[in-house]
TrEMBL record:
Keyword Hydrolase applies: yes
Protein name per its UniProtKB record: HAD-superfamily class IIA hydrolase, TIGR01459
Domain of life: Bacteria
Molecular function, one GO term: phosphatase activity
Source organism of this protein record: Albimonas pacifica
């Protein structure tokens, strides 16, 4: 069975680095979790390095601004890497052409401030970049069926700047770019992503740690923290890293009545049904 711990400090001495998720772990899109803030502060106070690793489709500087607006203190992290960073690197390397069709909201404009591409009509595009839904509060991927069919008819590749399918904003669950990518794949379309669980974002995280410490860190000393079984946990497992599954995020409805204390039997059923086993689990990061 996957052990359930009461706090991050239960793992003292085992890890030097955290690759820590944001949504569902440090905040819910509307408010920062005070207990998570204190847990990360304590880890850093003991000499640990905290890299906030997020599937947000925007560059790290934009993620930092969002954290500032939420009132997240600076001393919880040593750096931020985002799926947006990894996707922009691929775009700027010329892997997606220079004329792209964009699916997404105005709030993702920061992506295109960093990406050296021109946004054009679908008929002129070499590829498609999806950063999210235009209105994620009201829309679902079904609203894009006609548009995706047109993309598929042209045989274009799709870059999903955010692999997440869903995220919770407060008490509300909304669709992300990953949901659009799944719908396109169902039509036979080709997609790619560079955030969790895919290797590029982990390479960026490791590079940031090495820059910070002046040396690489052994994989056994890195812990991936997150609430996404198919992103945070799957990515960590694929990288050969230990994982701390935060059950009080996306999986909370399946974990019993107390979000702070997952039911062990329900946790085991959830893990078995998804075929991915985290190293340890916790209700909320604290």
């Amino acid at each position: 069975m996957t052990p359930i711990i009461g706090s991050l400090s239960d793992l003292d001495g085992r890890y030097d680095v955290l690759f820590c998720d944001l949504w569902g772990c440090l905040h819910d899109g509307k408010r920062v979790y005070p207990a998570a803030v204190e847990a990360l502060r304590r880890f850093r106070a003991r000499g640990g390095v905290v890299i906030l690793m997020t599937n947000a489709p925007r560059p790290a500087w934009s993620v930092e601004r969002h954290l500032e607006r939420l009132g997240c203190p600076l001393d919880v992290r040593d750096g931020v890497v985002s799926s947006g960073d990894a996707a922009v690197a691929s775009v700027n390397a010329g892997e997606w052409g220079r004329r792209v069709f964009h699916i997404g909201a105005d709030k993702d404009e920061a992506f295109f401030e960093a990406a050296r591409v021109e946004r054009v009509a679908l008929e002129e595009a070499e590829s498609v970049i999806v950063t999210g839904l235009v209105d994620d509060l009201t829309e679902t991927p079904d609203d894009y069926a006609e548009r995706l069919a047109a993309v598929r008819a042209r045989g274009l590749r799709m870059l999903s700047a955010n692999p997440d399918v869903h995220v919770d904003v407060g008490e509300r669950r909304i669709w992300c770019a990953g949901g659009i990518a799944l719908a396109y794949e169902a039509l036979g379309g080709e997609t790619a992503s560079y955030g969790k669980p895919h290797p590029p974002i982990y390479a960026m995280g490791r590079a940031m740690v090495e820059s910070r410490l002046g040396r690489p860190v052994e994989d056994a000393r890195i812990l991936c923290v997150g609430d996404g079984i198919h992103t945070d946990v799957a990515g960590g497992v694929a990288q050969g890293l230990d994982t701390l599954f935060v059950t009080g995020g996306l999986a909370a409805p399946q974990m019993g009545d107390d979000v702070e204390a997952p039911d062990p039997e329900k946790l085991e059923f959830y893990i078995a049904s998804h075929g991915l086993r985290p190293t340890v689990a916790i209700g909320r990061l604290r």
